[in-house]
Automatic annotation (TrEMBL):
Protein name per the record: TetR/AcrR family transcriptional regulator
UniProt entry keywords in alphabetical sequence: DNA-binding, Transcription, Transcription regulation
Presence of keyword Transcription regulation: yes
Taxonomic source organism: Phytoactinopolyspora halotolerans
Pfam family, one: TetR_N
InterPro entries named in the record: Homeodomain-like_sf, HTH-type_TetR-like_transc_reg, HTH_TetR, Tet_transcr_reg_TetR-rel_C_sf
Lineage, top ranks: Bacteria, Bacillati, Actinomycetota, Actinomycetes, Jiangellales
DNA-binding region: 28-47
Amino acid sequence: MSDRDDVRRRIIDAAAALLRSDGRDAVTTRAVSAAAGVQPPTIYRLFTDMNGLLDAVASDGFARYLEQKHNLALSDDPVEDLRTGWDTHIQFGLENPAHYLLMYGQPTPGHRSEAAERALQRLRMLVERIAVAGRLLVDVETAVSMVHAAGVGLTLSFIEMPPADRDLSLIGRMRDATFAAIIATEPSSPSTVTQRAVGFKAVLDDVVDLYSPGERALLDELLDRVASKASPL
């Protein structure tokens, strides 16, 4: 690890410790620099501003949590992987509420934190695998939006409740209800128009050398139109 990386690590760890112990308001330039043993300008040189540091803290916390839970590896069952991802996401929020609120608690129009963006990219990857398997009932972006909104909304509602008031059975019930709206129990035989279009669109990223950006845009538009149909071929 270089000296720069070591200093960056110390600053993130110091900010994370303050966040866990005293909340977001305690994560100030003065407090972090004192805890990390650096001068305040170092924080701005490495993270641009305090928002950049807080984004880095949230992203680092989420990545470490996934590593500890060993949930980065994928199985042969894409639906089970999405189910694991849902449960892990909510568990992270409940076990690390301060980090989670950095990611989702104070949204800014047109801006998504680095950690939230990474989580969304992983969600999209998990959903695309279901599309490739021919089991997605809606287009990928609709499925991603539905799972994201349901999962984040449920987690934030739990965080604001006293732990004794949380009905944790909602984690599975909300998950199953959301999945039922977007995922077929088994691949249809024959596949519906929607499933075939969604599946084909999901594999286009694997063959990007076969078409130009303009051709991809036309394909996306056509497949989105086809996916809006629900009748079988």
